[in-house]
Design a protein that fits this description.
Rossmann fold, 11 helices, GMP Synthetase, Chain A, domain 3, globular, single chain, binds 5'-O-[hydroxy(phenylacetyl)phosphoryl]adenosine
């Protein structure tokens, strides 16, 4: 088994990590300057040249890239190598406008696989494990990324892809899968379905789950862990930067270690672009240090979190990002108040509900309406109106104190909200603004 726990990097003193980054960054900036006229122009407009970037301390001088740039440069405008050097594309699961297309050389795929292998090892995976990859395969990065990582670790890989829940469960049980990779909402659904079929946490062979691609709360983690009898690890990434594995959790389950030898993180104030000090909440920005085909510099992810560097009890020294609070474009502004779906989820799970809910926002007579459909669990389900009213009031009060505004809760029957096999659809915003 090759080893994808790489203590010489993952546990290196900060100075050593800086040395690696400071060696890679100037070469990367030169590579982009030489090969990506689109970004060279941005640098020229800002009056920066490759020689100005000697270390990560100079990074702030470089212009940002945004999703709008990706749209403008679509499809080949940010490609830094000739097509004959590229071997793959992946693309985001977004449904509106042009999709984001990201390009990879074999070297870029090797880095990506390595990051996913580190994630699997952080979750305790070895070549003795049977790893079921239930993220979608295809253009979405979830399946191909974890598949590559699982191979590198030497796990027996089951490439089920997403969907066909019965078949997923059959493979978990028949092949005694020990690691499950999928979105947290699908993991919750699989757990629910397995319990309905009579399996319990004790009879389910899984021991770890590697869940990401969408926001989820600590409460949802505990719920899934209990149902499936596993330890659930958060994994983060995005197509533009490679895919899953940009960061992931270790046994401490307390923030995701960023693979800093490949991706340099910054947190900025999304309004002003100013770089914020460690510990402050803001928009996450990544610079790819050694990707060749699609090397984005200072890419604004729109994801909101903070960074912290501390010596982790697991031994790793790489900086951690906190669980995502949401996205700058996911944040709903309802009656002038910022609302993140994750806050709603926290209140629901604290009150014994599962994370099966849908937020519906509309505007009637110039005022925002804010409804949340929440599924009752089977043991709560009753036709006693008084009891339902009581439950509804408890939730509305809890939400009001969390959000500062009133939401109308509609308690709906178990299983009446459509389940997702990939990323869950939590928000329906009907406002035409
Ligand atoms: O979702 C890559 C991925 C696949 C990550 C499998 C983890 C596991 P995209 O489809 O490009 O790529 O979506 C990226 O998803 O900017 C975040 O807003 C969100 N996201 C990803 N991981 C997490 C996470 C993949 N752990 C976008 N928690 C990102 C919350 C996440 N949100």
């Amino acid at each position: 088994m090759e080893h994808y726990f790489q203590p010489e990097i993952e546990c290196a003193p900060v100075e050593k990590l800086r040395e690696i980054q400071n060696k890679l960054l100037p070469a990367q900036v030169q590579h982009v300057w030489d090969n990506v006229p689109y970004y060279r122009k941005k640098m020229q407009d800002k009056g920066v040249e490759p020689g100005d970037i000697k270390s990560v301390d100079d990074l702030y001088k470089l212009p940002f890239l945004t999703k709008a740039d990706l749209k403008e440069a679509y499809p080949y405008g940010l490609l830094a190598l000739p097509l004959e050097d590229c071997v793959r594309i992946q693309s985001t699961s977004g449904t509106t406008g042009k999709r984001v297309v990201s390009f990879y050389t074999q070297h870029d795929i090797d880095i990506w696989d390595e990051c996913c292998a580190r994630a699997i090892m952080m979750a305790g995976g070895t070549n003795k494990d049977v790893c079921q990859v239930s993220y979608g395969y295809g253009l979405f990065t979830g399946g191909p990324g974890l598949n590559g990582g699982s191979h590198k670790v030497g796990c027996l890989t089951i490439p089920t892809s997403s969907g066909n829940t019965e078949r997923q469960i059959m493979f978990i049980m028949d092949l005694q899968a020990t690691i499950l990779c999928c979105t947290p909402s699908y993991a919750a659904y699989l757990g629910e379905s397995m319990h309905e079929m009579g399996y319990t946490a004790e009879t389910i062979p899984l021991k770890a789950g590697i869940f990401g691609a969408e926001a989820w709360s600590e409460e949802m983690r505990r719920d899934i862990e209990k149902t499936l009898g596993i330890k659930a690890y958060d994994i983060y990434g995005l197509t533009e930067i490679s895919g899953p594995g940009v960061s992931c959790e270790c046994s401490e389950q307390n923030g995701m270690h960023i693979q800093e030898d490949h991706f340099y993180p910054e947190i900025i104030n999304p309004e002003t672009g100013e770089v914020l000090p460690e510990g402050q909440l803001g928009e996450l920005v990544f610079t790819c240090l050694d990707k060749k085909a699609f090397p984005l510099l200072r890419y604004r992810t729109r994801d909101i979190c903070s960074l912290k560097r501390e010596k982790c009890p697991c031994g790793r020294t790489t900086i951690k990002m906190t669980r995502l609070k949401g996205r700058t474009d996911d944040m709903l502004i309802i009656r002038g108040v910022n609302v993140f779906p994750s806050q709603i989820e926290t209140v629901l799970l604290k009150n014994g509900y599962a994370a099966n809910y849908q937020i519906i926002v509309d505007r009637v007579n110039h005022t925002d309406t804010f409804d949340i459909n929440v599924e009752m669990t089977p043991d709560m389900f009753t036709d006693n109106v008084g009891e339902v009213q009581g439950r509804k009031k408890i939730l509305e009060d809890g939400l009001r104190s969390m959000l500062g505004i009133k939401a109308k809760v509609n308690l709906v029957a178990p299983k009446s909200i459509t389940r997702s096999e990939g990323k869950a659809v939590r928000v329906i915003d009907k406002r035409k603004i």
